[in-house]
Each structure stands twice: as structure tokens, then as C-alpha cells.
């Protein structure tokens, strides 16, 4: 029953990741409070049983956020990220989930049947626009209208980030390139936009002047393909 499930707090600065994961958890009967920053989480006046927190956010984040949360709540703290965390975060948190996150992984971890769960199934092919496994799971959990709205939001978010990403690349601002790429990677991973996720991961982890032309082209190609599909009333 929903009343017997843990009450959750989700902290993630990426709107797409936050909204998709919260929606999936709520569909499984969890009560989920969502905030965008670590600072908001510390100000939140509600009791929760577990916290799912992104480890890479602007402001209070990572190990410092875990330590701050320990001062105000006895809830379990689960670190989530699109990248492998350092040993300090693994030791400080009560569990870790690698994006893209399957709801089954959250359920297993909170139920105590797993202490750590890796990422969801790998896409069938790097050339696929959308991971069929992720798409099938989303189709099973929500209406076609809701799914269309989610992918439309992903497309709009990706389009809004391409201009500042290109500007950061041209300015040689590697820090900003990696920050934007990390955000893109998280949102695209949650909905199985495989090519865009891989391109963003390359920008985040490699030397931008070397990888950026190919990676940005891959991002634009994924966006164009997704927008074409949405125009044809995908996923109905």
C-alpha cells in the first residue's frame, strides 16, 4: 500500500531527470517531495524516510550536502549521478544509483534487497535514437499523452542548452562545457535518448576542443530526430 512505502525527497537540479524520476516513483505509489538545490532541501519542513540526491549540482552538493543532511534528518541518503562518485561519497551515503535510474533499482535499494544498483540496461545500439528498453518501460507506466509531453520537454530543454554550450566551447570555457554536458547527459539518460547521452558524456569527460565538433553534431542530430518524431505524434 502507498501508505507503507517510504516517503521520499528527490534533490536534482536537472528538471528533466527530476520530473521523470518523480513521476515514475509516484506511479509506483511513493509520496515524493522534489527540490532543485541542496539549500532548498535543508529548508524543507517535511519528514521523509529517504533522500535521493544528485551528487553534482551548483551550490551545496556532494559530500558537503550529505553531511549537512545528516545534521537535520535521520533519513537514508542515496546518492545519484550520471558519473561514478568518489570514494568519500560512496562511504558517506547509504547507497548509490547511476543514471539512468530504473524505478526497480530504487525499490530494491529502499527495500534493502540491494545496497548498490548500477545503471539501467545498455541501449541495443549506439545508433538508436531512443533506447527501446527505456521507451518500453515508460510506455508501460504512462499514457501516450504524458510520454509525448516528457519527450517534448526533453527536446525543448536540449534545444535551449545547445546555444550556451556552443558559446562555451568557442570561448574555451571547459568548466562550463562540462557543466552543461553533465546536465544534458542526465536528462537524456532518463528517457533513453542514447545518442545525445553518449555525446554529452564525451563532452563531459574528454578534452572539449578535440571532441566538441563531433559531439555537438551528434547532439543536434539527436534533437532533430526527436523533433521529427514528435511532429508525427510520437509515441502514439
What does this structure look like?
With 236 residues, this protein is an alpha/beta fold. The chain has two domains: 2-117, Rossmann fold (3-Layer(aba) Sandwich), CATH 3.40.50; 132-231, Up-down Bundle (Four Helix Bundle (Hemerythrin (Met), subunit A)), CATH 1.20.120. The chain has ten helices and six strands, in the order βαβαβαβαβαβααααα. The protein has helices spanning 15-27, 38-43, 62-72, 87-92, 103-111, 132-141, 144-170, 174-190, 194-205, 208-231, and strands spanning 8-11, 32-35, 50-54, 76-81, 95-98, 116-117. The longest helix has 27 residues, at 144-170. The protein is globular, with a radius of gyration of 18 Å.
Helix-strand blueprint:
Elements: E1 8-11, H1 15-27, E2 32-35, H2 38-43, E3 50-54, H3 62-72, E4 76-81, H4 87-92, E5 95-98, H5 103-111, E6 116-117, H6 132-141, H7 144-170, H8 174-190, H9 194-205, H10 208-231
Parallel strand pairs: 1-2, 1-3, 3-4, 4-5, 5-6
Helix pairs in contact: 1-8, 7-8, 7-10, 8-9, 9-10
How many structural domains can be distinguished in the coordinates? 2
Q: Let me know the number of strands.
A: 6
Strand content: 5-15%
Please bin the fraction of helical residues.
Answer: 55-70%
CATH class of the largest domain: Alpha Beta
